[in-house]
Amino acid sequence: MKQNETKTSAAQLQAVKEEIEIWKHDFAEYISTPQYCFDRLKLTGEVSNGSIIPGSVYIYREDPLGD
User: Fold this and answer.
1) How far apart are CA 27 and CA 30, in angstroms?
2) ∠ CA 48-54-60, rounded to 5°
């Protein structure tokens, strides 16, 4: 924005600044609002002699619709 400040009108600059403020507000709201989800986690792995074999563990995520 600063690079093109001399090439744009005051109205254009104001419009850009307002748009940036809207985005800042939206991002701040998304970041500060807890998001609850109900995904299932599935862990698989191989066991040998009662211990999990390193490198054999995989984690899968599944949403409530099974995706």
Assistant:
1) 5
2) 100
CB-CB contact of 21 with 13 (8 Å): no
Q: What's the CA gap between 59 and 42, in Å, rounded?
A: 6
Each residue of 31-58: pLDDT tens digit? 888 877 777 888 999 999 999 999 999 9
Q: How far is CA 53 from CA 20, 50, 61, in A?
A: 50, 9, 21
What is the pTM assigned to this prediction?
A: 0.42
Between β-strands 58-62 and 40-44, what pairing exists: parallel, antiparallel or unpaired?
antiparallel
Which of 59, 55, 56, 57 lies closest to 41, judged by CA? 59
Cα 13 from Cα 3, distance rounded (Å)? 12
